[in-house]
Amino acid sequence: MDPRLVNLIARQQAANFPGLSGSEIQATLRISADLLNEAIAANVASGAFLRELTVEPRGGNHLGIRIKLAKPAFLPTFSLTLLIERQPQLPADPVLVMKLSGVAGMIGLAAPAITSFKVLPPGVRLEGDRVLIDLRTLLQRYGQTALLDHAEQLQVTTEEGRLILLVHARVRPSS
């Protein structure tokens, strides 16, 4: 991308997008399983504890998850299902809540170990049979938390083979 355009976007973002004041966007993003897993692989640290993580969007707000831990090596890959239970409530509570099923009992018992070994990235935590994903913390890693200042609604749904993001954002008029 042309560095002048990158610089322009960075300046606008730093100043809260004054050149887009009053703009509004509604978008539906249908993210294929391949693209989703490529993004996960690029951003989830594999290595000491996690060898592989793949996500398979299914219909009805379900996600199939396959996890292979690096250690102990004798453990097989295990599968579980996440059900989207609660959408982020923007801007006050940008947390997506999902309920575990499948091997949820084992995961619930292993939650303290998973937390202490830092298998999960910052912003993702286990609470019993729930996985909580804090979007603010995830965006913080990339210096993009200000994007939530413009988001009025974010809904995460699924269909077979795709994760769907419904987004409504607005750049409020400058005073």
Task: Describe the structure using short key phrases.
4 helices, 175 residues, 39% strand, 6-stranded antiparallel β-sheet, 9 strands, alpha+beta
Structural notes for this entry:
The structure is a single chain. This protein is an alpha+beta fold. It has one domain (25-169). It is 24% helix and 39% strand. It has four helices and nine strands. The chain has helices at residues 3-14, 33-43, 104-116, 135-140, and strands spanning 24-32, 50-58, 62-69, 78-86, 95-101, 124-127, 130-134, 151-159, 162-170. The strands form two sheets. Strands 2-3-4-5-7-6 form a six-stranded antiparallel β-sheet. The longest helix is centred in the middle third of the chain and has 13 residues, at 104-116. It is globular. It starts with a helix and ends in a 5-residue tail after the last strand.
List the helices and strands in order: HEHEEEEHEEHEE
Proportion in β-strands: 35-45%
User: How are the strands of the largest sheet arranged?
Assistant: 2-3-4-5-7-6
| Cα radius of gyration in angstroms | 18 Å
Number of strands: 9
Gross morphology is globular
Report the mean per-residue pLDDT as an integer. 85
Query: Given the helix and strand composition, which structural class is it?
Result: alpha+beta
Count of discrete domains: 1
The major pleated sheet works out as: 6 strands, antiparallel
Topology:
Blueprint lengths: L2 H12 L9 E9 H11 L6 E9 L3 E8 L8 E9 L8 E7 L2 H13 L7 E4 L2 E5 H6 L10 E9 L2 E9 L5
Antiparallel strand pairs: 1-9, 2-3, 3-4, 4-5, 5-7, 6-7, 8-9
